[in-house]
Amino acid sequence: MEQRTPGAGAGAGSRVLVVDDDPTVAEIVTGYLDRAGYVVDRAGDGPDALARAAAHWPDLVVLDLMLPGMDGLEVCRRMRGRGPVPVIMLTARGDEDDRILGLEVGADDYVTKPFSPRELVLRVGSVLRRARPAPAAASGLLRAGGLTVDPAARRATKNGAELALTIREFDLLAFFLRHPGRAFAREELMREVWGWDFGDLSTVTVHVRRLRGKVEDDPARPRIVRTVWGVGYRFDPAAGLGEE
C-alpha cells in the first residue's frame, strides 16, 4: 500500500477519494475538487473504495453513507482500522440518526444531500487544513490533568498511553487544553474548532461525548470535560485524572 501521511500537503495536490454509487453526484463532486487542485480517485461501492485506498492512501475521503452492500459506516470503520484518514460523510437530509452514527464511527464532518458542491470543497479544505501539523510557533506541548498533547506531531496521550483520536477530537482536546477553566458555548466551539459560523450543533455534542470516552476515567461522570448547563462545556484541569 502506498501510505501517505494523512493531511500532508493539504490543499492543491492532496489526494481525495470520492465514494458514491450515484455517478452523477460522483462526477459533479470530482469535477469541483479537480478544479480546486485536488488529485481525485473515485469509487462506486465499499469494496472498490477499500481497494483504491489500499493502492493509493488518500489524504481525505468523501464518503456516501448509503452505499450498496457495504454501507459508508462499515467502509469508514475498515479504513480507520488500516490507518488514520479524515472522512467527510454524505448523508440524506433529515437522517439525523444516521449523521450521528457517522460521527460516532469517526467521520470528521458531514454534508447533507442535496448539497452545494462549493460548500463541500470548502469543507474539504477546512478538514485538510486541520489535519496539517501545527507550525513550529504553535507546537509547544500542552499538558493538564494527566493529558499531553503535541500539536506538531498531532499526538495525544493520557497518563503516557497514546490516545486514538480523530482530527476533530484532537483539535477539540488541544483547544480545551489551551483554554483551561473557561466555559465555551457549542456555537463558539463550532467556530473555533471546526472553523464554521454555521452548522448542526449536534456535531459538537457528539464529538465531546466521543472525546470523553477516551480521556475520562468514567465517561458517564466526566470530571475533565464538564458540562456547564445553559452554556456549553469547560475543561477543568484542576480535577486531575485519578484525583478526588
Protein described:
With 244 residues, the protein is α/β, with parallel strands linked by helices. The chain has two domains: 15-131, 3-Layer(aba) Sandwich (Rossmann fold); 136-235, Arc Repressor Mutant, subunit A, CATH 1.10.10.10. The chain has eight helices and twelve strands. The strands form three sheets. The chain has a five-stranded parallel beta sheet, sandwiched between helices. It has a four-stranded antiparallel beta sheet with strand order 6-7-8-9, with helices on one face. A three-stranded antiparallel beta sheet has the order 10-12-11. α1 crosses α5 (117-131) and α2 (46-55) packs parallel to α3. The longest helix is centred in the middle third of the chain and has 15 residues, at 117-131. The radius of gyration is 18 Å and the shape is globular. Residues 1-10 have low confidence and may be disordered. InterPro entries: CheY-like_superfamily, OmpR/PhoB-type_DNA-bd, Sig_transdc_resp-reg_C-effctor, Sig_transdc_resp-reg_receiver, WalR-like, WH-like_DNA-bd_sf. One of its GO terms (cellular component) is protein-DNA complex. Residues 139-237 form the OmpR/PhoB-type domain. Residues 139-237 bind DNA.
